[in-house]
Structures are given as C-alpha cells and as structure tokens.
Amino acid sequence: MTESDDQPWRDPNAQPFLRIKGLSKHFGSVAAVDKVSLDIYRGELFCLLGGSGSGKSTLLRMLAGFESANAGSIEIDGQDMAGVPPYRRPVNMMFQSYALFPHMTVADNIAYGLRRDRLPRADIAKRVDHLLAMVQLADFAKRKPSQLSGGQRQRVALARALAKGPKLLLLDEPLGALDKKLREETQFELMNIQEETGVTFVVVTHDQEEAMTLATRIGVMRDGEIVQVATPREVYEYPNSRFVADFIGSVNLFEGVVSEDGESHMRLDCAGLGTSLYVGHGVSCTLGQRMWLALRPEKLRVSTEKPAQSHNVLQGVVEEIAYMGGSSMLRVRLPSGAQVQVTQANLDRDDAHPVSWDETVFLSWSDTAGVVLPS
Amino acid sequence: MTQGVVARGRAWVAAVPGIWLLVFFLLPFLVVAKLSLSEAAIARPPYLPLWEWDEDYLTITLNLGNYRYLIEDALYINAFLESLRIASVSALMCLLIGYPMAWCIARARPERRNVLLTLVILPFWTSFLLRVYAWIGLLKPNGVINNMLIGAGLIDQPLTLLQTDFAVILGIVYTYLPFLVLPLYANLVKLDGALFEAAEDLGAQPWQTFLTVTLPLSVPGMLAGCLLVFIPAVGEFVIPALLGGADTLMIGKVLWTEFFNNRDWPVASAVAMVMLVVLVLPIMLLRNAQNSSEELA
Q1: Which residues of A have a CB under 8 Å from any CB of B?
Q2: Judging by beta carbons within 10 Å of its beta carbon (0-12, 13-18, 19+), is residue A261 exposed, middle or buried?
Q3: What does the alpha-carbon distance between residue A358 and residue B7 come to, in Å, rounded to a whole number?
Q4: CB-based contact, B213 to chain A, within 8 Å
Q5: Residue A305 binned pLDDT confidence (cut-offs 50, 70, 90)
Q6: Among all residues of chain B, which has the CA nearest to that of A87?
Q7: In a domain, B155, yes or no
Q8: Is residue A119 scored above 60 in pLDDT?
Q9: Predicted confidence band at A283 (pLDDT cuts at 50, 70, 90)?
Q10: DSSP-based three-state secondary structure for B130
Q11: pTM of the full structure
C-alpha cells in the first residue's frame, strides 16, 4: 500500500468523495455553520470535533438533509445534494439517542430501510441476518429495544444505519451514551466494522480522546468554522492555534515576543517568566511579533537538581500531585505566578526519587518539544 | 420512625380520594343496586322495601324481574345497541377530526402549543347546555344552515337536520372532541422527533413515516381518546334529548323516561346497572391504554 492509498488527502490527483464548499447555515443572526469547505475521501473515518455549539451537529444534519443550507453546496460521489430530501440521499445516520423504533423488534428495526426499498423478502432476511451476526446480536433478533442494554442498542443502531449499504454513514456521538469501559471496546469494534464495510464514516464527537482513537483525520470546529483539518497526530503535535492546542489534550502556553529569528532557531522573550525560551527550528515570524509557545505536559522533564542544559529550564514549587495509575500529574507554580502542568509516566512500581509537595523542582524540555503558535 | 410517619402521611393522602369515592360512588352505587332488586309500587318512595322485620322473621325480597324485563322488552336491548352504535360512530368521527388537530398541535412550535391547546379547551368556558341549544338554532328547518343553503340556491326545501341521528352524532362529536384531542396530543408530543428523522433517513417518505412510525406509536393515545369520548357518549342524555328525534333511541334517554315519566325507579336502576357492566370493559381497556402509553414514554 502506498502512502497516497492510505492518505488520499496527500494525493493532489485524488477525487474527494464528499465535497463541501462554502457551506453556511444561519439560525436567526447566528451562523451555526460558517462558510465551511471540506473534502473527505472514500473510506475515511473523519471526525468532526468541537464543543457544544461549535456547529458540528448542524453540519452533520445538513449532510443527512435535515437542515437546508443558506449558502454553499454538498456533493456526495459527484452528486449535488441541493434539494434532495433525506429519504433520497445515499446517506444514513446513526442518531445520538439511537432513535430505535420502540414498537419494532431488533430485526424489524434493521429491516426498516430495506423494506422501504421494496426488496424481496428473502433478500431482506438474509441481509438482516448478516448484519445481526456482524454486530453480534444474532440471538436478540426478536427482542424489543427496551429489552436491550445500552451497548446492545448502540449496535442495533449501527446495524440499522449500515443496512442499506450507504455511501456515507453519519454518526452523531456514537459512543456518547456508553460508559467508559464499553466505549473503549466499542471504539475498536466501530473501526473494524468501518474497515470491513469500506463505508465512509463521518463522526461527530465532543470527546477528543474518541476522535484521536477513531479518526483517519480530524476536523476541529469552533463557532461554526473548521479551524484545523489534520491527522490525529498532527492535530496533537502540530496544532495551528492556541484554541486547537488547548482543546485537544492539555497544554502549557507561554506568551512571548520574538527576539531572535534565525534560519534554524528562534528565541521568544517571555516577560511573564522573566526569561527567554529557545526554539531549535526556524519559524516564519518577524522580530517583535507576539507569539505563544505550546508545551504538552508529557514533554516536560522534572528534576530536583538543576539540569545541565543552559536554556529552557524553569524553576518552580510543586503545588499539586495527582497519581493516576499509569501516570502522575504535577502542577508546578513558577515564581511569576504561572502554573505549569507536567505528566510523568510511572515506569516503575516504586518511585525511587519521589517528588513531594512544596518541593522546589526544575522543569526542562528539548529545543523542539514545543510548538510556536502565532495566534 | 420517620418511615412510619411517611407511611401514615401517605395513608392520609390516599384517604381523601378514598373517602370521596366511598361517599360519592360506592354508597350511591349500592343504593342503585339495591333499588334495581326491589319492586315498583305506587308509594313514596315508589318501591317496596327489600327487607322486612316482622315478629322474629326477617323477610328479604329480591326482585330479579326488573332485569328479566330488560331482556324481554326489545326496547331496552335496542336502546343499548343504538347507544353503542352512536357512541362508536361519534368516537370514530372524533378520531378523524381530532387526530390531525392533535398532530398539528404536537408539531407546532412549543410557544404556540399552549395557545392552540387553550383554543381546544375554550368551548368549555361556555355552558354546555347553551352550546347544544345553539346547535338547535343552526340545524332547525328555518335555521342558519338551511337559510344559507337556500339563499345560495343549492336547495329548494329545507333539509331535515334537527331531530336526526346525524344531529345527535354532530352534537356528541362537537362536545367531546377535546376529550380525544388532549390525550392524543399528550401521546404525540412525547414521541421522540429523532424517530421520524430516523425513518426519513432510512428512506421512508413522509406518508410512510406516518403509517409505520407515528400511527403505531400513537395507538395508546388514540385508544384513550376514543374511549374518553365513547364512555360518556353511551350514557349521554342531554344531546339526544335536545338534538335527537322521537325515534332516536339512546339508553340515557330511556333511563330518564323510566325514572321521571314512568316513575319506575327499580327498572331505571336495573338499566343503570346494566349500563355500568357494559362500560366496564371499555374502562378497563382505557386503563391498559394509559399504562402502555406510560411504558412507551
């Protein structure tokens, strides 16, 4: 498999499967979706990630045909969707509440879409059996939704949405109603089913962990706009704004002014810290520009003795320690008053050099650990 | 300790409706049941006592003749059947008119729903009797409807509208429509809107969505509404008396005639008892409908 097979968005010749151009939706004076343009490729598992009110659900509902656009267009597999009602779109949706028909059995729920297509009875039965087996509910065909657990309902909803073999499957917070343990299992199940069926998935979620695990690419939404589209790793390691850096994972932000702008390094004067921070790669910026250095908590090292390196060392006092099993989280108060968050992997069962409360520690990081953000 | 207090409190709260039912339902019911087993007499009150105490002998006389009389005289059976027919047709008409109303109110914007519901209940603010009398003015041979039709040149002779079964059904439908709309609305408004969207998403056109999702899920509401119309309509007296003709035979009217014109209290009581038994079945259905609609929600 070549890279462009795996990552069609890197191939300039690849044809997008879902093409959203300049799409807007206004509710009164509020733009729920604001001039969104987005290309999604066949077989992708694309996550729309955003907080409540970011417009992600509205965008999904526009793809399904439940909301009409004020401007812009949606094209699915080369077909313009303007004016096409939901029941004629090659798109199916898995609802956040699952929206299973309470008066029908599991099998009837799954068969609902197939019956609307007036398929032969035997074909419907075969397809329903296949789907029930796929979501491991073969023994539950005759049950009503009210007799199922939350996880089982979720799988019925998925099977029902996949029944018609849609070109595009829309999933609205597919794991939102499940508890944490079940959610983790289901994530992988969802990915397997997506791979197995080859259907293009568009998932809406507010849960960044869920998006990171599931997605081939993530589109981060804020106030109706898409602020970054990238792979999970890129979104995490190379966020393009403070908002994205802060929304996905935790981050320490240091504000400063560019004081050195070299070919392969730069320096940020941080008045708040009373020191300057060194960045070991070139950044497109101008001298005197206000910028931010974003540092992930796990990229920081904690030591009780002053490290050997000459720059990117901060001194502070440990204020809080939270043991979380796999890792520990520390909050360190700097003399400037700023608080820095650090996570440390708990590699050993016994910590030979434990850090305690109110201890003075040194924080250090490598020259390329941080991301410099212009906004 | 506190549990005991709570239990006692609960018992007191439950006692109020309990006492109410005892005084205003169970005791009158027993009186009527007793009356239905006594013998009519020209006396005051117009029936013979059920038991007599005479020198150590307690004589209890149970007269089942009143019930036999109901079976033997076709009038009563016909009146019962006719009442059931008129009540059924009325309930069905209410459903046909009331379903679209309830559906529209349930689909209306939330801030509008209360206004629309108030409009449904508004007729109750005028006297029921006045409203039925108003229909006489509309339906009579030289009434508003006939005058308008003649004025428009559509008919030469006034139509016989008043004193027909049609007028009775019209009156019942008009009076009891809110009793159907309200429970049906309560049912429809609780349905999850995502269900309709899911149906549409899976390829159902709006009419298919209605037939396969909305309609089956509103069965409890329809049943409750229809029974709330049907049950009081069976025993309706005022509407057939005012709008019906001499040949409109309804059990409520028969009961009234028996009681006040013939002064045959025992037979009237027997009619009332049979009516109660006939209505127990639909009342139980109503209770089941309400339970299952709660389960769905």
Answers
A1: 64-66, 85-88, 91-93, 95-97, 99-103, 112-113, 116-117, 146, 160, 163-164
A2: middle
A3: 56
A4: yes
A5: confident
A6: B203
A7: yes
A8: yes
A9: confident
A10: helix
A11: 0.82
Total count of domains within chain B: 1
Of A65, A99, A164, the CB nearest to B198: A99
**Torsion sign across C-alpha atoms B104, B106, B112, B118:** positive
Write the residue in A86, A101, A103 that is nearest to B201 by C-beta.
Answer: A86
| Long-range contacts, stretch A139-146, CB < 8 angstroms, 24+ apart | A140/A106, A141/A105, A141/A106, A141/A107, A142/A105, A142/A106, A142/A107, A143/A105, A143/A106, A144/A102, A144/A103, A144/A104, A144/A105, A144/A106, A145/A98, A145/A100, A145/A101, A145/A102, A145/A104, A145/A106, A145/A109, A146/A102, A146/B295
Q: What is the pLDDT of residues B16-54, one digit of tens each?
A: 899 999 999 999 999 999 999 998 888 888 888 888 888
Tell me which residue of A24, A52, A53, A55 sits closest to A37, measured CA to CA. Answer: A24
Candidates A87, A112, A160; nearest CB to B205: A87
pLDDT band at A1; cut points 50, 70, 90 = very low
The position carrying tokens 């003015």 is B137
pLDDT of residue A5: 64
Residue B197 domain flag: yes
With 80 as the cut, is the pLDDT of residue B292 above it?
A: no
- DSSP E strands in chain B: the ranges are 51-54, 57-60
Contact residues, chain B, for A163 at CB < 8 Å? 202
Confidence bin at B205 (pLDDT 50/70/90): very high
Q: Where are the domains of chain A?
A: 45-61+86-246, 250-374
What does B163-214 look like in DSSP terms, one character per residue? Answer: TSHHHHHHHHHHHHHHHHHHHHHHHHHHS-HHHHHHHHHTT--HHHHIIIII
Asked whether residue B136 is assigned to any structural domain, the reply reads yes
Task: Provide mean pLDDT across the span A169-180.
Answer: 89
B182 is a domain residue:
yes
Q: What pLDDT, in 10s, does the model give residues A190-243?
A: 888 898 888 999 999 999 888 998 999 999 999 999 999 999 999 999 999 999
> Model confidence over A124-154: pLDDT tens digits?
999 999 999 989 999 999 999 999 999 999 9
Task: Please list every residue in chain B whose beta carbon sits closer than 8 Å to the beta carbon of residue A112.
Answer: 199, 202, 204, 212
Min Cα distance B206 → chain A (Å) is: 9
Q: Is A250-374 a domain of CATH 3.40.50.300?
A: no
Whether residues B198 and A103 touch (CB distance < 8 A) is answered with no
Contact status, residue A371 vs residue A293, Cβ threshold 8 Å: yes
Residue B61 predicted with pLDDT over 90: no
CATH of domain A45-61+86-246: 3.40.50.300
Are the Cβ atoms of A116 and B195 closer than 8 angstroms?
no
Please report, for the domain that includes residue B76, its CATH number.
1.10.3720.10
